[in-house]
Amino acid sequence: MGGSQNATTRLGSARNSTARLVSVFSSLVNRGVAETSRDYKLGDIIGKSASDVLLRIMDFVCPDGGSTDEGITRNSYIEALSTLPDWENRTIESLTPPEFLAFTEIYMANVIEERLVNDIGNKLFALPKDVAQVESLQGQLKDYIKGAVSDSVSKLNIDIRSIDTSQTKAIVDSIYRTAYDILSGLEE
Description:
The protein is an all-alpha fold. Helix content is 69%, strand content 0%.
């Protein structure tokens, strides 16, 4: 893919979407629900379920549009939401900084996976002809990508409580680059 910097650049609008997500989560953690709601024009989210609030945040994080990159970000966000069904029964105020970071990691892993699937569809990568092998490879790849994103967050010692909104883009790019560096071992 031309190295981790090129792979990160190819993520396109997903990088900005991830930076917006980290900014909102950092604001929720550091400034509280009421102030974040006002600043990001989220409406009345106090006491609302975390799932409902994250759906409202989606339109800010992943604006609806027609490009492939925007489709990847929205689909990745929806997939991340679907992995957290117990958040329907929890208020946004009850979520902890590690939970916000975990959601971000899931989202980022989904973005990388969706980008790879798109690249496969564009024939940038070849797959085996056997469907069972493809399914096995897909499961392994999904787990590996999640691990790479989690490892990059750990390696970079990311703490959502200490992220300044002016730093989010650089931090997000650093996480993606580090994850792609880890994934390059798979390529070999």
